[in-house]
Amino acid sequence: MSDIVVYGVPGSPFVRAVQMGLEEKKAAYRVEAVAPKDLKNETYLKRHPFGRIPAFEHGDFRLYETQAILRYLDDVFPEPPFVPADPRAAARMNQIIGINDWYFFPKASAIIVFQRVVGPALLGTTTDEAAVTAALPMAQTCVTELDRLLGAQCFLAGDQISIADLVLAPQIDILSTTPEGKMLLEGTNLKAWLARMNARVSMIATQRPEPLRGAA
Fold first, then answer.
1. Per-residue exposure over 50-74, b if at least 16 CB sit within 10 Å of its own CB, e if not
2. CATH 2.30.30.280 matches 4-76
3. 147-205 pLDDT tens trace
């Protein structure tokens, strides 16, 4: 049994980002599925006191926060590197991670994806169209800026995959299953980038659970 364990809700883009990092590093690991209702129980809060996902263990070392986990993996498993050697490319990577964590996920993608995919597929809820409409301006701003920063590069911070790609790919992949996501990506460099990411073994090996595939 692997001594690397990832705890989280299957299908979460943050859990998937960590899984992708492990797949890219060819590191053995296992996923311990956690039900959403159990994120606040005493056992899980010992792993993640904020009750979020993922939580991570490597032997007796515990860690949480996706970005921290991916940076740790890059230090422990140096090949292939996830952080560009060039300072400007590394700074661009960090900027893009910040765009995801502060704007794209909480103010755009999470709202649209919950209303179109997660809520209807897993909770039986009806889409709040007003919430989707309210999230669209920020979604458009984020996609426009990410598309500009990507430009003609293969990956978000240059010619090699980085933490920015690992963090963004699961987010944009699930968003792309919604009508709004399809509309936002059409005609952008991000659409071809997502196709390149989806062709990678790390994406193929970490598919979302069936209820979350194309639910929109």
1. eeebbbbbbeeeebbbbbebbbbbb
2. no
3. 999 999 999 999 999 999 999 999 999 999 999 999 999 999 999 999 999 999 999 99
